[in-house]
Amino acid sequence: MARMQKTVGLILLLVLFDGFMSAARAADAEERRAECCQRDNPQIAQWQQNADRLYARFKAREAAGELQKVLQIDGENFEALIKLARAYIDIGDHIAEKGIVERAKDEGVFQS
């Protein structure tokens, strides 16, 4: 009898826990829907298009500026984060290339 009461108590606890988790999932889904609406902002779409256009023209710094505007409004915008990382890599590569060329000139590897 005591074992049966423990089993029933455990089942009731599990049912209550499942109800709590369902409510938490519903609240989380509502929060995601609100974030989704932020991403539908036409200004964000315009900044992303500008960034794509600038990046295609090898203007990584300017593209990064547009992407930073997106992230000020939607800090978790995956597309903007990935593209900004790519732009920063290109900006860094460009800076590194300049450094290598300058060092090569200083060392007389080639003449300009």
Short structural summary:
The protein is mainly alpha-helical and 112 residues long. 86% of the residues lie in helices and 0% in strands.
What is the helix tally?
4
Which bin fits the share of residues in helices?
Answer: over 70%
The helix/strand class is: mainly alpha
CATH class of the largest domain: Mainly Alpha
Instruction: Characterize the biggest β-sheet.
Output: none
CATH architecture classification name of the largest domain: Alpha Horseshoe
Please tally the β strands and state the result.
0
Radius of gyration: 27 Å
The first-to-last residue Cα distance is 94 Å
Shape: elongated
Portion in strands: under 5%
Roughly what is the average pLDDT, rounded to an integer? 76
- Helix and strand run: HHHH
Regions with little confidence, pLDDT below 50 for 5+ residues: none
How would you describe what is shown here?
The protein has 112 residues and is mainly α. It has four helices and no strands. It folds into two domains: 40 residues; 72 residues, Serine Threonine Protein Phosphatase 5, Tetratricopeptide repeat (Alpha Horseshoe). The model has no long low-confidence stretch (mean pLDDT 76).
Question: How would the blueprint of this fold be written?
Answer:
Blueprint lengths: L1 H38 L2 H15 L3 H14 L4 H29 L6
Question: What structural keywords apply?
Answer:
112 residues; mainly alpha; Serine Threonine Protein Phosphatase 5, Tetratricopeptide repeat
